[in-house]
Amino acid sequence: MLSPYTVLDLTDHRGELTAMMLGDMGADVIKIEPPQGSSSRQMSPYLEAAPETEQSLQFFSYNRNKRGITLDLQSEPGRQALMSLVEKADFLIESSEPGEMASLGLGFDEMRKLNPRLVYVAITAYGQDGPYSGFAANDLTLAAMGGPMSLQGHPDRPPLRITVPQVWLQASAEAAVGAMTAHALMVQTVQAQFVDVSAQAAMVWTMLHGMAAHAIQGYDINRGGSELQLGAMKVPVVFECADGYVVMINVGSTMVKFVHWLVEDGIVPQEWIDGEDWPTYERRFLQDMPVTYPLEETVEATRRYLRKYTKRELLERGLREDITIAPVSTTEDLTRFHQLEERGFWLQAPLADGRGVSVPGLFARLTKTPMDVRRWAPTLGQHNAEILGEKLGLSDGEIAAATGINSA
Amino acid sequence: MAEQLPFESLKVVDFSWVAVGPITSKYLGDHGATVVRVETEGRPDILRVAGPFKDGVPGPNRSHFYGDFNSSKVGLSLDLKNPAGLDIACRLIEWADVYFESFTPGTMDALGMGYEKARSLNPSILMVSTCLMGQTGAARSLAGYGFHAGAIAGYYDITGWPDLPPDGPWTAYTDVVSPRFISALVMAALDHRRRTGQGQHIDAAQMEMGVQFLAPQIIDYNASGKIVSRNGNRSDVAAPQGAYPCAGDDQWCAIAVDTEQQWEDLRLTMGDPAWAGDDRFKSVEDRLSNHDEIDGHIGQWTMDKTAQEVMELLQSHGVPSGVVQRSSDLLQDPQLAHCNLYRYMDHPEMGNIPYTGHQFRIQGYDSGPRSPAPLLGQHNEYVLKDLLGMTDEDMIEAVIAGAIA
């Protein structure tokens, strides 16, 4: 799909997924790291038996379909090499602090002079300017400032984030949308484009109906543990089962079938089947219209039923009879969820310690231009000779100067 | 010169519903495309009956759960099970560049508007089918929401406190991941179409997009057998990190130290209290081991200040910190105002309300949202006459046949 295009990836963990998405979609991506390597090479989880710069599974996960070079952008030869690459590139993605690239003479205004068709994507915590643009930020503080923490967590504990950092991944995936939107505009205008991505705003969008709630209904939504909160309806979605937890949204149409399971196990009397117009239950409830069995009773019956069975039993019977009861998976459960294997989702990748491992595959299927993995994450400076030597025609000495080998 | 929009000549027909499809077509609409959102009056988008409702009063045209995802679109009512309705759906597919649907796999084929049919009507159509589990595989018909896919993907187990059952993310988590992947993909596939004339069919499984954000942890399990688990707000490599109580009712400020320097700066901001110099808090490992105790001390320092004061004090020393903001805070956040995130527009039933815009800004044009969400069936005549070129007579015939319902 994007095979005519070249992407320069100057990001760290704040934007590596952006360039990988473009690479998965076919673009030729060149990852440009400082001489000591991207800071994401230091991020957990780690593969202990690998060389130090290749230990990070964070780096390994979000840098496939990229060739990797090192450039010392603090030095003139390093900057010159980058500028030569920019002349021939279509996209540049960076995630440094606002103004940092410009201070090196590598900001959008300079780059567009070198390449008047460049799409320049900058990913930052709060955007390039504005009152908070200089704020120190990370996953936790952006999950707070972007809103989702106010909605997550147990009511008698502090507001909560998702334990595995999500913010920069949300912002990075969004930046890929920004890159492609700007590219579409560039095609029409034949003018360089600047895309200013805000991680805070990306987190606002993770609130869905919570994001503008106050302006609509006049009050905020507050965290309610595992409750689904839809207007008047507050219903738990996480239930204990025999061997862990499941997620079930047991309102309305789900009860049409599930009520038979409840009756079968003697959890509720036979008259529940016809005593309520279950298909319209949810709509009536949400619109403050009368219902026969209060929500609390259906929730309690559900709780009593689910406790008797395992995650697997509930999922499988549900699949057969069209009731969705989703297991609360651990990473281990996920790798055993048969659907992904059946669809050929998992790919085999070589780890830096020499072993092969199953890894998450491509994010969608296309009939004409299927995505593929052409290479796994580069080792530090793996393609210096190939790109700086063959592509740019630099001599060995010039490569050493540009990559900072002399100073390292 | 008139402002040019990235997708101003693009035509989109959207038969999808709830979140993933509509949020994706919203991107295209806000950035210039003509988007026809098709609904059936007897079974409109479920979000139309879910809150938040304007002033708390329910009604199919009063839900902003629906509204926020459907800005910059026109609305058409169509009964796809009615032959005349299906005929109009096919005309829309002929008209469109992009065709979205999010039904259970096989539904569009059964209705007579699957990909093969769509391609015969419009050889370069780009059709996007999105559902939880994908178009193939034994679990393909698993119907549900992003809550279910989020649970199977692993997000519930890793959101909560270690001593309590999982809380899970606030919402249907794969719904907040998938639109980003699909939007980028649709734009890339459109670029391919521009260059080659080729359309195609995209199978976007929300589960497979959802797990992308857990890739390192999945690989870690496969490589080393380690299972990540929920750990409140704490990091496994840096401390202290947490949400700390501030003055007022249920007000909090998140503070998250990543480096030794930031720990020093946090101490300095708090006035270098004696407790912080204790050897038990010296290294990262020490602080991780004695985290509860540190949290108690920091909470003592934060609790008589407003969350905004705590954030500003810490930011003046470069310590990562941020107020735990609610919707009411976000609507007044000066940074989001600077980014022009919320746009107030007049909706026929809901009045002047904010629509949430985009998370990136591209210089040189306004990315909207451009118009409020459609009322159910609001643009029937516009779509049939102006977009499809139907005559008054044809339109009346379709209405009599029961197609427009």
Describe the structure.
The complex is a heterodimer of chains A (408) and B (405). Chain A is α/β, with parallel strands linked by helices and 408 residues long. Chain A has two domains: 6-206 and 346-403, Crotonobetainyl-coa:carnitine coa-transferase, domain 1 (Rossmann fold); 237-335, formyl-coa transferase, domain 3 (2-Layer Sandwich), CATH 3.30.1540. Chain A is 36% helix and 14% strand. Chain A is built from 17 helices and 14 strands. In chain A, a hairpin with a 2-residue loop joins strand 7 (227-230) and strand 8. By secondary structure, chain B is α/β, with parallel strands linked by helices. Chain B folds into two domains: 11-143 and 180-205 and 340-400, Crotonobetainyl-coa:carnitine coa-transferase, domain 1 (Rossmann fold), CATH 3.40.50.10540; 241-324, 2-Layer Sandwich (formyl-coa transferase, domain 3). The two termini of chain B are 42 Å apart. The chains are: A alpha/beta (408), B alpha/beta (405). The interface between A and B is large, with 155 and 161 residues. Strand 6 (193-198) of chain A pairs antiparallel with strand 12 of chain B.
